[in-house]
Specification:
This protein is of the alpha/beta class and about 425 residues long. Helices cover about 30% and strands about 25% of the residues. Strands 1, 2, 8, 9, 10, 11, 17 and 18 form an eight-stranded mixed β-sheet that branches. The chain is globular.
Length: about 425
């Protein structure tokens, strides 16, 4: 069924009894051409583009829980392409362009809202760094605009411009950035992939990867053995554990990233704003709640919950930026498991087994990268060679010393 205003009207006349499930609940087949481990945004997008762009429909997506239960539903919904380095900027701009046509592409309302992303700066040195980033963006055809103090005040008058420690001097804005409804992204890709013949297998945890003669032959799961000709790993925060089943040790660490939502407020902030003097970012949802987050918890963990020290840290940064937040109540919090790579950039590459493919190490950038990640990973699996925009994201860059270090932090995963 194609969703449209007409379909809503006609189903309303029938008491809305004619709607069909968005995707099937198939039993796994004994063998597939391609198996994707991970039913989050990246895994579902990969399956969707394999079927849509490359005509490969004998595909299974294996999800250990239910669709949307992982990181794709545990983030702050921000999309942007305001990156500096040539290895990152074209990739995230490809993702932004795919976001802009996504709802028409897979016929699902993902609530793409290009409300703008403003990065505040607080010193001359930070202004110069943002000028450099903005110039790099514009050289790659990405929109960027430097705002002075008064321009920021006109947009966000409730900020603490005269904070003794962190006075706001201006900001860098990407007006095409914004937010997307995260669970709708998962549902839309799942529905689109299913419509093209992909099997989405929920509650199917991978417990082992079988190899013969240096090639992967299939996966052992809680629903039995499933054979495959090609295996793609897109397991988000569990990438290192799944890769270890194939004898791989990835250069990543797993950390928890907490996010928060406040009580509903009247329209307060109509863009995404980030604090340049600390790690804090905030936007307002369509329900009125402020959605915000900050730094990862510094220790390694696979738990989807964080500690109170980070809650305090995020709250302090938020109140330094917006003093009025001290009177706002937080309703709930959640945590996602971040794959933090050694240089803060992702990995999309083939492993030493020639039919095993890796999509991992997304750090803070996983949700915003969903469309481009799926498209480029599908390209790698289908063609056997990397897409042009991911040529810098190879796994062997760590052995070659060609790191893609956007923040210049070095091999410190917990700082990226």
């Amino acid at each position: 069924m194609r969703y449209s205003a007409l379909s809503i009207f006609l189903n309303g006349l029938r008491g809305n009894a004619g709607w069909k499930p968005a995707w099937r609940e198939p039993k796994p087949k004994p063998r597939y051409d391609v198996v994707i481990v991970g039913g989050g945004g990246h895994g579902l997008a990969t399956a969707y583009y394999l079927a849509r762009e490359f005509g490969i429909t004998d595909v299974a997506v294996l999800e250990q829980s239910y669709i949307g239960s992982g990181n794709v539903g545990r983030n702050t919904t921000i999309i942007r392409s305001n990156y500096l380095l040539p290895g990152n900027n074209p990739f995230y701009e490809l993702s932004m362009k795919l976001w802009e046509g996504l709802e028409q592409d897979f016929n699902f309302n993902a609530m793409v809202s290009q409300r703008g992303v403003v990065n505040l700066y607080h010193s001359d040195a930070q202004r110069d760094a943002y000028v450099r980033r903005g110039n790099a963006m514009r050289l790659h055809g990405v929109d960027a605009e430097l705002l002075d103090r008064e321009a920021v005040r006109a947009m966000l008058p409730f900020l603490d411009f005269d904070n003794a420690r962190f006075p706001i001097r201006g900001g860098l804005i990407q007006r095409r950035g914004g937010t997307v409804r995260h669970d709708a992204v998962a549902w839309g890709y799942a529905r689109g992939a299913d419509n093209r013949g992909v099997d989405i297998i929920q509650n199917c945890e991978v417990v082992g990867i079988r190899q013969e003669g240096g090639r992967v032959v299939g996966v052992d799961t809680t629903q039995g053995f499933i054979g495959c000709d090609r295996l793609g790993l897109a397991a988000a925060g569990n990438s290192s554990r799944v890769a270890a089943m194939a004898g791989l040790r990835l250069p990543i660490e797993s950390h928890v990233l907490q996010a928060f939502v406040s009580e509903a407020l009247k329209p307060f902030i109509d863009c995404v704003a980030t604090f340049g003097a600390g790690h804090f970012y905030v936007s307002q949802s369509d329900k009125g709640g402020l959605v915000f987050g900050g730094d990862i918890d510094g220790y390694n963990s696979y738990a989807r919950r964080g500690n109170l020290a980070t809650v305090e840290h995020v709250a302090e940064a938020g109140k330094a930026m917006i003093p009025a937040l001290s009177r706002v109540r937080v309703l709930r919090a959640w945590g996602g498991i971040m794959d933090m790579s050694m240089d803060g950039s992702p990995i999309i590459d083939r492993a030493h087994q020639d039919n095993l493919y890796i999509n991992a190490g997304w750090c803070y950038g996983g949700f915003k990268a969903t469309p481009a990640s799926g498209f480029c990973f599908a390209h790698l699996i289908a063609r056997g060679e990397p897409h042009d925009t991911t040529r810098h994201m190879r796994l062997d860059r760590f052995a070659r010393g060609c790191l893609l270090d956007e923040k210049g932090q070095g091999a410190q995963p917990n700082l990226h």
